[in-house]
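TA notes, week 10

Several of you asked for a full example with nothing omitted. So below is the full record: structure tokens for the whole chain, then the designed sequence directly under it. When grading your own attempts, check the secondary structure regions first.
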């Protein structure tokens, strides 16, 4: 009986279960590429494919479980949205210096996410942790009312403890301090540092708390944002997490990390504050409502700049993938030049096609990617896209000084993006991300100058050499690409 069971009954049960799982994948998964990725895992990796899909592939999150509205009153919410739309449209109509590509991008982000366009802002470009962390510590120490911190990675290391001590000191002074940390990315602070912060008066809450790290579907929906808001008028956003690796002051042989961040002072901070408070209400299970304390009047006389800034944010809770749309629009709207730096390049079809078409119509596209990556499989998957881009005329460079982790874009020397989103499907669909869009020639050209400085530490991939690679050299990339939709 046992032999009969093993030979016929058990395989039959497994076959039926496999068919049911495949039907669920086909029914539940939105994108064709991701559907095929999960199907291949389930079919070719027995049992482990099931575990992987039900751990990472099933969308257990229903919209009702992620309620981060700041406005309980729908009428009030509509009133605020209408006001944002009206004021932003007036700004667009009255700003004759904004060119058509800038206006189209601004309107797209405005109408997809009701993210306002603001013109009273000063924006400072910060290169690496060496420039970011001293500025962050200075602003934290100067805070008078509140400090809001939201990070994917907050490490229990030297810089992590420096910032933690600064937050503790402000909490003791009576400043309200709130910290959102991703429970997966910041797992090193879960045991001791979080407890220390809480005992000192800092309100600290994990984003999607993970009970069982190994089998947690919530690992799939990570908060990849890096936001600091000080007193509602000053903010930091970009690619730099709170970790010693970004300071480049570790052992001499440690990998050099190259990253970019921005400090914003002015009206654009309001939307970053809005994002933080929404995320806080979800994480801490509170109902903080908007108030003048969080959105103070910005005195334009105190702002040393008039830069147009807009915040693009999206996540699994979004009605539309705003960041993906904004990137496609920026690429499609580029007329002359497009310079992109990104550490994880696994584009979806819309990004890939937009880049190919832009290159075909004569746009000078330069793509700076890591020569050394922290993920071999992601690096292999990224390289599988090179041939199509190189043939179209896109120039691809590998950064060799260390690991380039910056997520930036400069279009025509007029539009600049600095943020947290990678050029991969995970950032577009699964992670909570945020990018700052700066519509300013001076800032864009400053970021463009940094891009060309980075190219001095990069090697250009020659199309003719790339096409000559052997089948064995290309095989790992082809295999990795099959899994690109779920990396």
């Amino acid at each position: 009986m046992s032999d009969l069971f093993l030979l016929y009954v058990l395989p039959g049960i497994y076959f039926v279960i496999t068919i049911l799982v495949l039907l669920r994948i086909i029914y539940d998964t939105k994108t064709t590429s991701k559907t095929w990725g999960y199907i291949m895992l389930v079919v070719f990796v027995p049992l482990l494919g099931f575990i992987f899909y039900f751990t990472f592939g099933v969308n257990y999150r229903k919209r009702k479980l992620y309620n981060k509205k700041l406005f309980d009153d729908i009428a009030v919410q509509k009133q605020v949205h209408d006001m944002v739309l009206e004021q932003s449209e007036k700004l667009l109509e009255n700003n004759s210096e904004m060119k058509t590509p800038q206006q189209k991008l601004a309107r797209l982000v405005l109408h997809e996410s009701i993210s306002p366009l603001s013109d009273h802002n000063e924006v400072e470009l910060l290169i690496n942790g060496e420039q970011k962390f001293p500025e962050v510590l200075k602003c934290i120490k100067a805070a008078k009312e509140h400090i809001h911190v939201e990070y994917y990675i907050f490490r229990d290391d030297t810089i992590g403890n420096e910032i933690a001590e600064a937050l503790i000191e402000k909490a003791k002074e009576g400043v309200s301090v709130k910290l959102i940390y991703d429970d997966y990315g910041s797992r090193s602070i879960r045991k001791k540092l979080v407890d220390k912060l809480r005992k000192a008066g800092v309100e600290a809450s994990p984003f999607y708390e993970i009970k069982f790290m190994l089998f947690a579907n919530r690992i799939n929906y990570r908060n990849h944002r890096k936001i600091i808001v000080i007193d509602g008028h000053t903010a930091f956003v970009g690619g730099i997490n709170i970790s010693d690796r970004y300071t480049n002051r570790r052992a001499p042989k440690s990998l050099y990390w190259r990253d970019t961040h921005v400090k914003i002072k002015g009206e654009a901070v309001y939307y970053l504050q809005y994002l933080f408070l929404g995320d806080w209400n979800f994480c801490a299970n509170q109902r903080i409502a908007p108030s003048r304390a969080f959105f103070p009047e910005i005195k334009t006389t105190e702002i040393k700049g008039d830069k147009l800034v807009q915040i693009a944010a999206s996540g699994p809770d979004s009605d539309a993938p705003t960041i993906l749309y904004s990137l496609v629009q920026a690429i499609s709207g580029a007329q002359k030049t497009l310079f992109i730096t990104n550490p994880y390049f696994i584009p979806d079809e819309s990004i890939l096609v937009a880049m190919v078409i832009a290159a075909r119509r004569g746009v000078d596209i330069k793509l700076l990617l890591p020569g050394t990556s922290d993920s071999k499989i992601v690096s292999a998957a990224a390289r599988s896209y090179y041939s199509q881009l190189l043939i179209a005329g896109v120039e691809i460079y590998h950064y060799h000084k260390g690991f380039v982790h910056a997520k930036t874009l400069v279009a025509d020397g007029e539009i600049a993006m600095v943020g947290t989103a990678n050029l991969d499907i995970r950032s577009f669909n699964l992670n909570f991300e945020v990018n700052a869009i700066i519509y300013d020639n001076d800032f864009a050209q400053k970021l463009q100058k940094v891009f060309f400085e980075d190219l001095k530490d990069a090697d250009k991939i020659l199309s003719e050499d790339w096409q000559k690679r052997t089948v064995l050299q290309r095989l790992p990339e082809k295999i990795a690409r099959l899994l690109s939709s779920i990396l």
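Residues 322-486 form a domain with the Endonuclease; Chain A fold (CATH 3.30.870.10). Use that as a sanity check on your answer.
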